[in-house]
Write a sequence for this structure.
């Protein structure tokens, strides 16, 4: 079996990102930092990626460690940043691409300690794996406004100022978008039918995407 | 007068009837056709100023009287639409209550009105039915289906995304407001299910 290094780039790309090399260097300088503290950093970086905490929690913890272990705040920040970057880069290629052994080898080449490598491995292949990948795909990208809520009213117009007898359905929509806009508007029945037809068409097209030849290249 | 369909506006009509009775029939018919085409349209005047001036010279009646006549005729159509009158009822009303000239020759005028009403009634009523009261209404829906293949955080994805552009027309200003929203597969399914429930309610209404 040829060494994976001959046919595959490491997971972080073909050059070592500066954030990572600085992290390794700083870790060597801060040899007084005990492993449990490092473990906590790694755990914090995981929740950072999952957006489970605000950035202030991490910074607070770093400040506490500064006082506890008497290490400069900037150095701890560099280490923390390096961990987050490693996780981000590991989540970037498609899920099937990242094999545990190759991943560990790459980390070893970066000169991380075995304990740290084990930690990263547990995070990426552990219980939250799917959630991590989902967050990387869905949250960290630009999106147009989404429809937060969609209310509707179906009334029947019985009489109007211009017609004493007129039995017509009247449809109202209220859209609330993530762009903080509330739109209330009337929908003529004809337009509603067109909307419904087009939505069904879109759904059918979406389902058919998996079958299209050109997109088969994107199988992950 | 209280039996007339036009009980609200009978004074208006009284003033114009003599003018109407004196008009040339063919020109009157054309006038009626034009008025019927434009009755009930919102935000539109039936004749522009230029056209009014031309009518003035054609009919040899002052512009003010012409304007009044046009308004009266439009009013007659609108009231007929309101009550959904039958042509015969309209004819009787015009002749008996409104003093459209009765003699055989000029009775023709009332008949012209009724004929125009019979042919345009459906169209006028439809137009009135579809007038909007709400400030905004949906005038058009545009969409695209895109597939995301790459992003900063993931090098390879296959992510179908539907982008909708809802065009809302403001009825007063005729301005179109464009609202763009994005849907992924799950969101689109949820949206579609809501549309389906609306449709089932509509179907229940119709039966």
């Amino acid at each position: 079996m040829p060494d994976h290094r001959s046919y595959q780039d490491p997971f972080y790309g073909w050059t070592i990102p500066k954030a990572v090399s600085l992290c390794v260097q700083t870790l060597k300088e801060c040899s007084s930092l005990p492993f449990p503290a490092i473990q906590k950093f790694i755990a914090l970086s995981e929740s950072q990626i999952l957006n489970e905490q605000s950035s202030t929690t991490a910074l607070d913890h770093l400040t506490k460690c500064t006082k506890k272990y008497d290490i400069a705040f900037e150095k701890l920040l560099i280490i923390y940043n390096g961990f987050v970057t490693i996780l981000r880069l590991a989540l970037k290629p498609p899920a099937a691409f990242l094999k545990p052994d190759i991943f560990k080898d790459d980390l070893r080449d970066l000169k991380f300690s075995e304990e740290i490598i084990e930690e990263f491995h547990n995070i990426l292949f552990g219980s939250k794996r799917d959630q991590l990948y989902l967050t990387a795909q869905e949250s960290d990208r630009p999106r147009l406004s989404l429809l937060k809520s969609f209310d509707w009213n179906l009334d029947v117009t019985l009489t109007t100022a211009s017609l004493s007898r007129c039995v017509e359905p009247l449809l109202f929509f209220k859209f609330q978008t993530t762009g903080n806009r509330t739109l209330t508007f009337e929908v003529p029945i004809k337009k509603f039918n067109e909307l419904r037809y087009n939505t069904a068409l879109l759904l059918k097209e979406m389902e058919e995407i998996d079958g299209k030849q050109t997109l088969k290249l994107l199988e992950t | 007068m209280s039996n007339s369909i036009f009980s609200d506006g009978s004074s208006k009509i009284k003033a114009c009837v003599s003018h109407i009775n004196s008009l040339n029939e063919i020109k009157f018919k054309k006038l009626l056709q034009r008025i019927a085409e434009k009755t009930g349209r919102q935000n539109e005047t039936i004749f522009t100023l230029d056209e009014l001036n031309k009518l003035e010279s054609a009919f040899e009646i002052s512009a003010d009287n012409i304007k009044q006549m046009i308004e009266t005729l439009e009013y007659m159509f609108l009231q007929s639409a309101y009550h959904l009158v039958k042509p015969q009822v309209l004819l009787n009303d015009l002749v008996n209550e409104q003093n459209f000239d009765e003699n055989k020759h000029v009775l023709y005028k009332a008949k012209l009105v009724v004929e125009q009403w019979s042919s345009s009634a459906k169209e006028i009523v439809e137009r009135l039915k579809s007038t909007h009261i709400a400030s905004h209404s949906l005038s058009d829906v545009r969409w695209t289906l895109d597939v995301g293949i790459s992003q900063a955080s993931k090098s390879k994805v296959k992510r179908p995304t539907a982008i909708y552009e809802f065009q809302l027309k403001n009825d007063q200003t005729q301005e179109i407001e464009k609202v763009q929203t994005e849907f992924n597969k799950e969101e689109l399914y949820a949206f579609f299910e809501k549309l389906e429930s609306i449709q089932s309610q509509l179907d229940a209404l119709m039966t």
In short: The CA atoms of residues 148 and 177 of chain A lie 5 Å apart. Chain A touches chain B through 56 residues (CB under 8 Å).
